[in-house]
Amino acid sequence: MRILHVVQGYAPAIGGTELLIQKVSEKLVSRHGDQVTVFTTTAARNCNVFTNPFYRQLSPGDTQVNGVLVRRFRVFNLLGPVLFYVQRLYAALHLPRDDYLRALYIGPIVFRMAREIARCPADVVAASSFPMMHMHYVVAAKAQSGVPAVLHGGLHPEEPWAFGQQIILDAIRQADAYIANTVYERDYLVRQEIDAAKLKVIGVGVEPEVFDQADGQRIRQKYGWGGDPVVAFIGQQAGHKGVDTLVLAMPMVWREFPRARLLIAGSRTRFSKVVRWRVSQLPRLCQPLVTVVDDFPESDKPDLFDSCDVFAYPSGFESFGIAFLEAWARGKPVIGCRAGAVPSVIDEGQDGLLVRYKDRTELAHAIMTLLRNPHLRHELGERGRKKTLSRYTWDIVSDRFRQVYQDVLRRVE
Fold it and tell me: Which of 62, 130, 232, 292 could lock onto 263 through a cystine, CB 3.0 to 4.6 A?
């Protein structure tokens, strides 16, 4: 099968969708011998380059990566600062179809991409993820070439500015199939009167073998934690991820567990300054108990997860939350929020605990519950590990993506 994947970024760009498409693409090549091409942008790290002309871009052109042909298109971002104010003005004045301007501002604006998608000799084209403009390029190319289109959205309905756009629903209706990360996302689309028959729930994955080789003691020795209990947040330091709530919860934890450590590890964002400020406002004797690790290499991730006793990821919205799988792959108990898709990923009381978003007190109590009870930590983590191995390895996920592609091709033949 000849498959074209279209995505906003590809390694070394960082992000859950970027990792998903990389893993699925490579597995389709290695497991099934498919011919996979990826059209992506020159984003070097994240999507900020789509709106900010001062961000560094990678070089455009073609490269072969683990059997996958990766074609990078240069992003046009010079209008980003202007479009920011224009789309806000449209929204403030309630002008019609301001969602078009929002989509244009979010980007990526790539002048040749729709034309090249239509010309690519693929049996099926699949694009990830909304609210990015390349999703609409795929729909436009489908109208021109007739090649079947599969969309993988990764929707966050709780974020209406980005995801509450009519053009997103219009694009999904024009696609031949839609892949949702969770039943929460699928049910949301059904309520928007999207045909349930075209919606498939798959999710994301992990590579269990990588996590099986983790060495958390290396991390504990590096930072001098010894046998102290460790609470970890491992993920992008973004505002909606709840890192600040976790910092605010820790003084309550320290009253009962004065030697507990807090690990905050992940890629820096503009919100990282707020995180650092929150840490600086902690009592002077507590600040050394916090370890912040910025932009760690991917090879360190399994060791970081293995080093903790409790994984706390109190995010306000996720399309799935791959970090929960990564913690479960090491048999760690997880704490998430009763928000968005997370309750459809974590079975509360079975493989993790859930708390209210931004509720520092409830978060602190959940952490202390797990620190008090090693048996509960083991039970929750082990159930999460079993669920991950049975549903969410990259082999399983890539096979499910491929099945969707095959089903679409059979319907259009």
Answer: 232
Asked if residue 285 and residue 152 are part of one domain, the reply reads no
For residue 152, give its domain range.
2-205+393-412
The β-bridge partners of 234 are 265
Burial of 95 (0-12, 13-18, 19+ CB in 10 A): exposed
Beta bridge partners of 266: 294
E-strand stretches of 135-197: 149-152, 177-180
Is the pTM for the entire model greater than 0.90?
A: yes
* Residues ≥6 apart with Cβ < 8 Å to 146: none
Q: Are residues 377 and 406 in the same domain?
A: no
Residues 6 or more apart whose CB falls under 8 angstroms from that of 288 comprise none
Instruction: Judge whether 42 and 11 are in contact, CB under 8 Å.
Output: no
| pLDDT score at 14 | 80
How many other CB atoms are found less than 10 A from the CB of residue 93?
8
Where does the pLDDT of residue 159 fall: very low under 50, low under 70, confident under 90, or very high at 90 and above?
confident
